[in-house]
Amino acid sequence: MILLKNCFYLQTSSEAEGLRDVDVLIIDNKVAKIGKALSLPHGKEGRIIDASKHVVVPGFINTHHHYYQTLTRNLPAVQDAELFQWLVHLYEIWKYVDEEAVYNSSRLAMGELLKTGCTTSTDHHYLYPNSFQGDLMGLQFQAAEELGMRFSPTRGSMSLSKKDGGLPPDSVVQTEDEIMRDSERVIHQYHDPSDMAMRKIVLAPCSPFSVTEDLMRESARLARRHGVLLHTHLAETRDENAFCERQYGRRPLKVMEDCEFLGQDVFFAHGIHFNDDEMKILQETGTHIAHCPSSNMRLGSGICRVREMIDMDINVGIAVDGSASNDTSDMLGEIRNALLLQRVTKGAKALTTREAYKMASENGAKLLNFKKVGRLEEGWAADMALFDVHKLEYAGSLSDPLAALIFSGYNHGTDYTIVNGRIAVEKGNLIGMDEDEVRDKANAISARMLEASNGR
Ligand SMILES: [Zn+2]
């Protein structure tokens, strides 16, 4: 049981104005009560947190990531590369991803996410080197459980290697039989369909340029048989359009349509290069978009038509994307970039701070099919981030404390992050891991992978 006392500013629903000087009582994994002068129920033990300096927001939902890429961020060789060239270079390093790399990169990425206000995340791991033996997703769930994060990883896949006209090397792709078998296994083993599940599964063939149409279609059918979601990268770059027209004789969205890969149970990462007709198809089918502004800027991929999508009621969430193209899992920073990037071409009214928050909370929860997650209301999940705004960098900005987090400040760390009614970050530090240990491990694994690829 946790009682937040005297919240300086509490954002309940993302669209309404926030509440001032209120208390929040958390019982088990839910918000039990929001109101003035609350106390712990008589005779009950609980934790009391003074929130009088804090902006309290619904925990952010990260809708796309590649945790393993935290080990290869900021590599000089691809700092200035565009997507295809970037991928081809990095695959030669990523093929050395092993069990230790998966577990520790998951701890690292989720640690950063939690520390910047994110309480629910997905991950898209599509790289299965031939030498990898263990239960990859099991390692990720172990890390999520230790850190206390709500986690809905995608079972990624690649079946089209260089010899078949794809981009990845042969050693990191799997046969379609292996992929389908393991996809079914992880659904049976880990998927929890309940509203506030801590574990959900998504199926996610990597992209139109790394799997066959057959695998896309079979993944869609398998997902629907089991009621799990579908995900892939789509319309990220102009190169991808050219690849699809050359390989399939169709644009990417048409390929997906022909693979039964559209609908309310589908979300695409990026979704930049859609034409007007394709936008209408997204609207009609209820397909969602995971918008990755930092990655899109970093790789020079383009600007997602977020404003138009929102106006068309296409659901758009926010995502930090993989750490080799961002190169951080700073979730609050990503919300800031989403807002600023829309304004570059569409003017200062293109996106408001409230819309940006809604994308990062409610929309993300809807995209990942979590019910009663993404808003701070009685009966909803106790997932929240507490940012201390009584600091030098926020001085002078408190006429609108919520917007202050986006427009002001330079340290995006929370003071507290609470997930499913449990404290995951306390006084800016992770509860579920030794940060120094994970930092040193990640640096050592990163160096080892680079060495292995240089010596090949
Ligand atoms: Zn991605």
Brief sketch in words of this structure:
The protein has helices spanning 83-94, 99-115, 136-147, 176-190, 213-226, 238-247, 252-258, 276-285, 293-298, 306-311, 331-346, 353-367, 401-407, 435-454; strands spanning 2-7, 9-10, 22-27, 30-35, 47-50, 54-58, 60-62, 118-121, 124-125, 150-151, 154-157, 202-205, 229-234, 266-270, 288-291, 316-318, 384-388, 416-419, 422-426, 429-430. It has 456 residues and is of the alpha/beta class.
Descriptive keywords:
456 residues; seven-stranded parallel beta sheet; globular; six-stranded mixed beta sheet; single chain; binds zinc ion; alpha/beta
* Distinct ligands: zinc ion
Instruction: State the end-to-end CA separation.
Output: 54 Å
Write down how many β-strands occur, each being a DSSP E stretch of 2 or more residues. 20
Radius of gyration equals 21 Å
Task: Based on Cα principal axes, name the global outline.
Answer: globular
Give the averaged pLDDT, no decimals: 96
Strand order across the biggest sheet? 9-11-12-13-14-15-16
Residue share in β-strands: 15-25%
Structural class: alpha/beta
Helix content: 25-40%
Number of helices: 14
Task: Please describe the biggest sheet, giving its number of strands, its sense, and whether it closes into a barrel.
Answer: 7 strands, parallel
Which spans of ≥5 residues are poorly predicted at pLDDT below 50? Answer: none
Q: What topology does this entry show?
A:
Elements: E1 2-7, E2 9-10, E3 22-27, E4 30-35, E5 47-50, E6 54-58, E7 60-62, H1 83-94, H2 99-115, E8 118-121, E9 124-125, H3 136-147, E10 150-151, E11 154-157, H4 176-190, E12 202-205, H5 213-226, E13 229-234, H6 238-247, H7 252-258, E14 266-270, H8 276-285, E15 288-291, H9 293-298, H10 306-311, E16 316-318, H11 331-346, H12 353-367, E17 384-388, H13 401-407, E18 416-419, E19 422-426, E20 429-430, H14 435-454
Parallel strand pairs: 1-5, 2-6, 7-8, 8-10, 9-11, 11-12, 12-13, 13-14, 14-15, 15-16
Antiparallel strand pairs: 1-3, 3-4, 6-17, 17-18, 18-19, 19-20
Helix pairs in contact: 2-3, 2-14, 4-5, 11-12
The site of zinc ion has 7 residues, from loops.
